[in-house]
Amino acid sequence: MQVNLIRYGLIWMAASVGMMLLGLLLAQFGVGMPAGLATVLPPMVAAVMEGMRIAQATREPLAGKAAWRNAAAMTGVVAVLTIVQLPLYWNNPVIVEARQTIPLVFLAGIFVLLLAVILMVNRLFLGHGIKLGLKRLEE
Question: Which of 21, 51, 82, 123 could cross-link 71 (Cys pair, CB 3.0–4.6 Å)?
């Protein structure tokens, strides 16, 4: 079973925008969010929702290879969407400062490392979403 990558991307974008708005709201009260939460939570939410959809469609868990293939495809969607969004953030003062002080090769390395983390999150929570979906079907 193949994950619906368009739906995954839309859910990821909605969760990302929600995280941004939540961060702005919390900043008004002087409260900050953990730094990695905005990186991990959107793919987590999208992967669980897609896993639940797969469980409804197939009514069985995914094989290991298929789950990894789907997680890799979902990570590719995150990479493409992040690259597409990059021009929106390029002139943000924080990004400008980072570009001036951190070498571009190092920033690219951080991007690859974050994609590896997102791959693991996608794989873990895709399986979790399938388990939740199957449990819901049993009830």
Answer: 123
